[in-house]
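Annex B, item 7. Sequence and structure tokens for protein A, then protein B.
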Amino acid sequence: MLAVVVGWVFFRAESLPQAGRYLAAMAGFASGTGLEHHVGLQLNAVVALALTAGIIGSAPILPRLGQWREDIATINLRVAVEAGRLAGLALLLVASAMQMAAGTYNPFIYFRF
């Protein structure tokens, strides 16, 4: 893994001295103020929603919902719940794929070479 990460530095850097500075920064030998990349640059509504979903998902709410699901008496209702769950997962997949496709700009990786 270390060889792969170090190899990526040479694809990213425009010159050998810049690659050396990247590697020094990766090893902790670079100085910086820490103000270049503060939390406000990364935290937006989508990230906040993902963090909230992660917090809720890690709470003991999910085992209780699983127990409630097992307590459903009729098979027809279980089938409807599973169909709804499947439809929700499919909708989530399509929405996440649309989100990823809408916000990406990936030029050809070897354009610089």
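Protein B:
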Amino acid sequence: MLGAEPGFVVVGEAGDGDEAVRLTRSLRPDVLLLDLAMPGVSGMDALSELAAAPAPVRTIVLTSAIEKADIVKALQLGAAGVVLKASANQILVKAIRSVMAGQHWIGRESVSDLVHALRGLMVASLDKTPRQRFGVTPRELEITSAVVAGFSNKEIAKKFSLSQDTVKHHLTNIFDKVGASNRLELALFAVHHQLLEDEPATPTATG
């Protein structure tokens, strides 16, 4: 299927984790599709080993099912995407093209759970070491906290008595400062760099 897709060339195939690591190092593909359930070195171990490379390959994790904590772990180890094997072929193609464009791809069914996992990880990782703020202002930190908590732009605007246009402006500035291209990448960045000191508030349920 991938070989028939315009612009795609399959440069190698591996039967286990050890071979996946070896071939990736020798062939240096643009994108690696990595199955988590492989004989020998597990997919997660292979991902960890490849993450230590000077120029890590863009990796999309393929899995039948994955716990939200494992999604967070895979992303921390450098995975650029997570795709369920049951997904339609066009979803995998879109994921590959998105990752090649420098974005992260997470199946929609995982995003809401991922936000909660990120919140838990963020709180668990807090310590007393000084944190770099990357030029993010106090107001922008508040908005980042709300993004990690899962607030929509409309909810953020209501929470801080701002217009939605002002919220969008703040988010654009935040994305530029931290190098994020979407809300998921901003949340990952905030967690990884311990940008937020306090646990974000839980969004108010609306109906």
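Comment on protein B: Residues 198-207 have pLDDT under 50 and may be disordered.
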